[in-house]
Amino acid sequence: MSHGATDPTMHPEVQLSTSKGYFLGFAISIALMLLATALVTSHSVPPFGLLMVITVCAGIAVIAQIYFLLHIDISEHNIWNTVALVLFIPLFLITIGLTWWMFSQLYLRTMDMSVMSSVTNPAVHAPATPKLSDMSGMNKNPDSGN
Amino acid sequence: MLVDLPGGWSPLLGRLAWSQIPYANPILAPLFVAVVIGAIIILGLITYYGKWTYLWKEWLTTVDHKKLGVMYIIIGLVMLFRGFIDGLMIRTQQVWAVGPHSSGVFGSLHGYLTPFHFGQVYSAHGLIMILLAATPLLVGFMNIIVPIQVGARDMAYPYLNALGLWITAAAAALIMISLFVGDFAHNGWFEYAPIFELQYSPGVGVDYWMWTLQLVALGTTLGGINILATIIKMRAPGMTWGKLPIFVWTSLAANVIALTSFPALQVALGLVAADRYLGAHFFTAGMGGNLMLYTNLFWIWGHPEVYFVILPAFGMMSEIFPTFSEKPLFGYITMVLASMAIAGVSWLVWLHHFFTMGAGPFVNTAFSVATMLVGIPTGVKVFNWAFTMYRGRLTFNAAMLWAIGALFLLLVGGFTGMMLAIPAINYMVHNSVFVVAHFHSMLLVIVYAIFGSVLYWFPKVFGFKLDEFWAKTMFWLFSAGTVLVFVPMYMLGFMGMTRRLEYVFDTGWQSYLTVMELGIVVYVFSVLAFFILLYVSVRDHAKNRVGADAWGTSRSLEWMTHSPVPFYNFAVLPHINERDELAWRRQHGIDQVRPEHYEDIHMPNNTGVAIILGGLTFVLGFALTWRIWWLCIVSLLAIILLMIIRSFKGDPGYIITGAELQRMEEEAYRREAQVLDSHHSHPVSGGVVGNAMAYQRNDSSK
Amino acid sequence: MSAHASTVDPKKAELWDIHHHSHDVISTRTLGYFLYLLSDGMLFATLFAAYGVLSYQHSYFGGPTPAEFVKPWYTFGQTIALFLSVLAYGFGMNALKHKSKSGLINGMLAAFVLGVIFLVLDIHDMSHLYSMGITLASSGGMSAFMVLTQVHATHIFFGLIWILVMIAQVMTKGFTEETVGRLLTLRMFWHLQAVIWVFVYIFVYLWGYIS
């Protein structure tokens, strides 16, 4: 079990590193983050569409990072990592998705209906009325830009 | 201090003060004296016999997965006993404090426990039984059996294995010390928001509960990673996925659950800590917090955890039934699929613990249907076990009796579970003792499987069998206790008795409660029978020695090596040709073939770092509980530094030469030959001889 | 006995592992660590679930919301620092491939410095909020915001300690099986932080800013 003579730097998991791959992972994700930030600050897209766009940005960036940085593919040395990740992803989605679903249903039934329009989907809420920000003295909203 | 605390606080001792020691409590003070005397006796005996070096070298610093497993099981059994005593106290209080005319002692209006103390007892009972009894017992068995069953010499990470054990031990120590220093939580084992918030539970009870649970979660996650990596990476040559024993498959499924679900618990507890220590508002009733969020996060972990403990129990049953039916397990593939299906569905059902939250018909229906789906794979398993026994040559020894008992309890618990899966029924019996009776039925499946496994694998680990007579006595007493306690509990649940009553207002329930008290007394006798069983078996161990294959009809790899298993497991790793390799070799008359040639093997060194880290995590937990900040910082820094130092030193391991291995192996074979000779003159009860015959008959019955 | 369907001839069967295959210590280590990282991912998923429940309008209890204090371009600076740090570590690992000790250490030092920049920006941001009276005790929504972002920052903090430890180990011990295994696990840890950060940045900072 002790390799002794073998050179650990020749291990396939070391050898699969490539500068090009890491740079691509970096470039793609930073470009997408830049795009998302620019869109968000320019307020040129309606909120719901904006949410969709930045979600897509996040999705592509994460896929690029998982592929280029974490080396998730179906090659012999990474297959178990890939299997484990594929088994985990549904659980991430279940945890977040089902929780969000049950609480949105709960809020629908238990919260004051007059604030429901903003409660059911915070993204489509347009701040037509001034925010309730008197309590902590936070009455300035420098980025509201509407 | 980061939040305003009720009561005193000093920089040196935090919240700790003499007034926190319950020396005036008429129950705890005598117990404390007894514990101190007991500890002095044990430590004195170890010193008298000069066993400290042995203990340190062979056990406390070991990285051998079998010894670690044994220590897990010892922790589990000790905590099972503690949890049982808590159960006894609960039952006694409830049979005593019935109706307004019932008497009261020790400062209690009714019964002998004040409501606050009673609350601590049932909270501790629940937490201990699930996380510090069932979990360590099962982890212990997985630790011992899985590496041998996959044909490995040790776990994938022996040092991490030791670390997991000592962190679990630290958790057990933390909950035990809460008996004598401060209070334990009194709001139930899973707690409720917002009552665990600082303003409603100002004592240290919730903090003890929180850090104990956090340590268990850490230890179990580490153990889970280890077992998963062992199964994936350490299988012997030829051990393909289709040849893995079912116990390995269920361990795999269980640890996938552990790995994925324990983080949810850690988050839930971490957020409780943020609320209690930093003044956050996650679960507060006002300030934008959401108290049901806690319940949600807790049960995201809590329900998978239920399957984390039941799946290895299913695996144990799947090992016991074929051995004592002298048949291969019926429906291997469906058994594997069922285990995986249970693990998968376990992630979709957690809301059924709080149907009454009121998330509405869509949500409740979805989770209700998902819950009922669990019945399908579980039903597959039950039928598979039944068909395994069908037309088998059954041996009704004690291990088999426990497994069959587990099967019956699974039916009871499963059917009542189906009832509870229907939201309409669930609303009626929510928080009643019907629910309590249901989950006790399920958890008793685990207890039955564990006792069956103790009997089944004991000879493998220690080299001799446990006494059949006392094992059977214990089984029948335990089963009588189970019936007497839980049948009336189901009935009381239908009558509307809610759980956790320290005072029972309806005198009409007196007779049921009396029967339950009778049942718990029968349980006490079964516990006594267990102690006698251990005593008698150790006394007569020379008579009950066994060879490699203790039962003569076992099927999997662990029975191919010596009993007790040498520290290197296999001198030469076996090459696996068939599922149930040992049964296959026996059938073809090649089970006695020995390797011709021994090669050098590499083994990990023992290390004291794991137990020191365990001790430090205990100190950290204690310091956090009492808010002794300097001690928190010191212990945390010590932990980090020790880990860094250990990573610099590493472990080169050591080599056992082939010649040395050959010498040890020949000695073991000689010992086994003596055992087998003596057995021909004294047949052991329950043991089966004439193995080859059994196989022939099995084949002809097909 | 012949009735038993057997695919292997027992007379010729190989019973023992005579070829003595040695198992791959490094990939066993990386697999276990990857499993741990996934469980760490689960930890973040649960935190995101909590954030989802606690990011409604009423969760802020009339107090400050992320829309009022998030500065996207400032946090984008953090993003650049972290992604560059991850890239530097990747270049370091590429140097390891070519057995270049100096290349590896340079990459790790750069990763360390950039990680520190990320952390300093984060601490500065948080202390700025604190000076405005915005803490995790402000409301349930703020508790969720703070804990989610600061748990990520804590990961970065421990990652930085680990980078220092590994620089020391590579300098003293060179490329042994243990150090190389640890460098690989650290790579996974460090790169996963970037993945988590994408979610934190998009769904906590940017989404919080627009809602």
From TrEMBL, chain A:
Keywords: Membrane, Transmembrane, Transmembrane helix. The chain crosses the membrane at residues 21-42, 48-70, 82-103. This is Cytochrome O ubiquinol oxidase. Residues 136-146 have a biased composition (Polar residues). It comes from Acidithiobacillus marinus. Residues 127-146 are annotated as: Disordered.
Automatic annotation (TrEMBL), chain B:
Gene3D superfamilies: Cytochrome c oxidase-like, subunit I domain. Keywords: Cell membrane, Copper, Electron transport, Heme, Iron, Membrane, Metal-binding, Respiratory chain, Transmembrane, Transmembrane helix, Transport. It is found in: Cell membrane. The keyword Heme applies. GO terms for cellular component: plasma membrane. The keyword Transmembrane applies. GO terms for molecular function: cytochrome bo3 ubiquinol oxidase activity; cytochrome-c oxidase activity; heme binding; metal ion binding. It comes from Acidithiobacillus marinus. GO terms for biological process: aerobic respiration; electron transport coupled proton transport; respiratory electron transport chain. This is Cytochrome o ubiquinol oxidase subunit I. It comes from the Bacteria. Pfam families: COX1 (PF00115). The chain crosses the membrane at residues 27-49, 70-90, 122-146, 158-181, 208-232, 244-273, 293-317, 329-350, 362-387, 399-425, 437-458, 470-492, 512-536, 603-622, 628-645. PROSITE patterns: COX1, COX1_CUB. Belongs to the heme-copper respiratory oxidase family. It is a multi-pass membrane protein.
UniProtKB/TrEMBL annotation, chain C:
One of its GO terms (biological process) is aerobic electron transport chain. The keyword Transmembrane helix applies. It is a multi-pass membrane protein. InterPro entries: Cyt_c/ubiquinol_Oxase_su3, Cyt_c_oxidase-like_su3, Cyt_c_oxidase_su3-like_sf, Cyt_c_oxidase_su3_a-hlx. It comes from Acidithiobacillus marinus. Residues 1-209 form the Heme-copper oxidase subunit III family profile domain. Pfam families: COX3 (PF00510). The keyword Secreted does not apply. Its main location: membrane. Belongs to the cytochrome c oxidase subunit 3 family. GO terms for cellular component: plasma membrane. The chain crosses the membrane at residues 33-53, 73-92, 104-123, 156-176, 188-210. One of its GO terms (molecular function) is cytochrome-c oxidase activity. This is Cytochrome O ubiquinol oxidase. Keywords: Cell membrane, Membrane, Transmembrane, Transmembrane helix. It is found in: Cell membrane. Signal peptide: none annotated.
